[in-house]
Amino acid sequence: AGVTREDKVLGLLLGTALGDALGASFEGRHAVTARTVDAVERADGTLVHTDDTALTMVLAEHLAARDHAGLDEDVLAGEFAAAWQKEPWRGYGPGAAQVFELIGRGMPWQRAAVSLFGGAGSYGNGGAMRVAPVAAVGTGPHHVAELGRRTASITHAHEDGQHGAEVQALAAYLALERESAPRVLDIDQFRHDLTRVVRCRAWHEKLDRVSELVRTGADPRHAAHSLGNDVTALGSVPMAVMSFVSNPDDPVAAIRYAIGGGGDTDTIGAMAGALAGARNGASTLPEHLVARLEVGDHAREVAGKLATAGHRGG
Ligand code: F2R
Ligand code: MG
Ligand code: MG
Ligand code: MG
Fold this sequence. Notes:
The chain is mainly alpha-helical and 314 residues long. The protein has 17 helices and no strands. The chain has a single domain, classed as ADP-ribosylglycohydrolase fold (Orthogonal Bundle). The protein is globular and about 50 Å long.
């Protein structure tokens, strides 16, 4: 029997939270052994999430509550800023914190976002890390990519920050709508679908490298060395895609692969978890880990609404 759409949407949210919370213990480490991840998995107590999950839940709620009205960047900017204001300790990037502070003081998000990094705007992975919920409401690949770019632009004025959100949004859409388990994931088709929509050479090169690394069975450290594992969008989204396509049928394996590469482990774990959770559904996530997540009940409530949010079809 197939997994229900609601279970897949919940898998997307809980996969994000699980990858984020498991990865958070290792953020910034050079490399992470399986044994240290085992220890975090086996421990008791709450798995505390970071900014990645906090903002993903804000976006999911925004989309679920607005139904036919769709995305409103002005409203969403205020909601993001309020989440940061309420819990600034969740490990936000310095650029994101600065934008949210400016928005909170009344500056339009467009001006706040372009003020970062000497006017270049941010190319951090903060737009990509929170984007996955748009996959549940987009009407097709181009629409999903557009929604992804628009949600990122609130904080990430640099095109690389926005391209990262487009790629991750689209990957989540494919995992949710087209590549459901147990159908075998066609990695070349997956890469082709991503590159068709996101027309940018630097991204195509990285995604081609993913296919090659999968073919050669690269381990996480090798993959991270080749693709990157840092806080930039171009230096982290390809590793998340790699983690997923090399472990398409097992969300925990995808997350462990992402964390094993070291670097921005909470974020790469969150993005890989979103993809594998969306493909396989929440019911495939280990109960003992899900029970330790902070967002459990809230995610279930939002997933139910998001799975039936109205601006789909066409
Ligand atoms: N920031 C972190 N983790 C490190 C500190 C957390 C600490 N342990 C704590 O507990 O507080 N994690 C979170 O940030 C990443 C997402 O970042 P986001 O939202 O994109 O922020 P930002 O600051 O805009 O970009 C991140 C960094 O990228 C570099 N950068 C971006 N654009 C640049 C540009 N145009 N020129 C030069 N550098 C640029 C900067 O170093 C930014 O600070 C996630 O990992 C999330 O988990
Ligand atoms: Mg984080
Ligand atoms: Mg408006
Ligand atoms: Mg991070």
